[in-house]
Design a protein that fits this description.
Length: 302
């Protein structure tokens, strides 16, 4: 136990120290030292997102004291990969509205994106406290999934991201506690399968195999899942209800999440030698802001 606490402490120090001066055009550096710049977008997608950003900026100019207006400017910047600018917008708004749960949640997310985990963790810790007096509400989708209305809430997102930060920092016991807090505010199957995947991973890494098995025991094939099919498949794999060869790996952030889940499954069942090539390939992925890529980097950095 003492040795595991030492490993956690070293991992947290390593992963929290990735705040270095950045050259122009670079948003962050990966945990392995790779320069991370805004992703390439098609001309059509970029034009649409730039137009959406312009509208959001106009609304904020008209309503400078509006939390929602500031959040949407930050989100629109994030969809363009301009995370540093988004952080500035959130920080400026927090200067006017200190301790606001919504702004802390969004700024913490972007600190996670740029690998500043210590700052992300501080924001989410403050957001948890703020949520005690902030009623929960569904958050709108900026990039909605066809056929699926918004389903995540403020409290869910605060606990989810807080637990994820603890996981990538190697503090697996804290991550387990965070995922359990998150599970308590889940109100739909989409959210449950996402949290259950990470809870299984955290419990396995904290040495609680029985708890990990219990976490996925209630996951069934008939759940109402459209957006989080990657997490659903992984939970069924962990529960022994879906053969690995039948798992479908898609593209984008959900594909990265599934690829990390499979690599992590190999890591904990077969060892790093088996998982390393998968983790290395994922850590080099162009979609570097996705949680799967961040988690892969963290495993390799450890």
């Amino acid at each position: 136990m003492a040795n595991r606490r030492f490993v956690v402490a070293v991992s947290m120090c390593l992963l929290a120290s990735c705040q270095v001066a950045l050259p122009p055009g670079v948003e962050a550096r990966s945990l392995l030292g790779r320069a991370l710049s805004a992703p390439e977008l098609s001309a059509e997608v970029r034009a649409q997102r730039e137009a959406n950003l312009a509208v959001a900026r106009e609304v904020l100019a008209q309503q400078p004291e509006s939390r929602e207006a500031a959040i949407w400017v930050g989100r629109r910047l994030g969809y363009l990969g301009r995370y540093r600018e988004a952080l500035e917008v959130y920080s400026e708004a927090l200067g006017r509205m200190p301790g606001d749960a919504f702004l802390l949640r969004h700024r913490g997310h972007r600190y996670l994106s740029v690998r500043e985990f210590d700052r992300a963790r501080a924001d989410f810790a403050a957001a948890v406290i703020a949520c005690r007096t902030t009623p929960d509400e569904t958050e709108p989708d900026g990039l909605p999934v066809p056929g699926r209305p918004p389903h995540s809430t403020l409290h869910f997102n605060v606990h989810y991201h807080r637990a994820l930060v603890a996981f990538v920092m190697g503090d697996f016991d804290a991550s387990v506690r965070g995922w359990l807090d998150c599970l308590a505010v889940c109100h739909n199957d989409e959210s449950r399968v996402a949290v259950t995947h990470w809870l299984w991973c955290a419990r396995i890494r904290s040495g609680d195999a029985a708890g990990a098995a219990a976490a996925v025991s209630g996951i069934t094939t008939g759940m109402d899942v459209v957006e989080n099919k990657s997490y659903h498949q992984l939970c069924l794999l962990y529960a022994g209800r879906l053969p690995r060869e039948k798992i479908f790996v898609g593209d984008g952030s959900s594909g990265a999440a599934l690829r990390f889940g499979l690599a992590h499954y190999d890591l904990v069942t077969e060892g790093l030698d088996v998982a390393r090539s998968q983790l290395e390939k994922l850590a080099a992925d162009s979609g570097w802001a996705s949680f799967g890529v961040i988690a892969a980097e963290a495993e390799l950095a450890r």
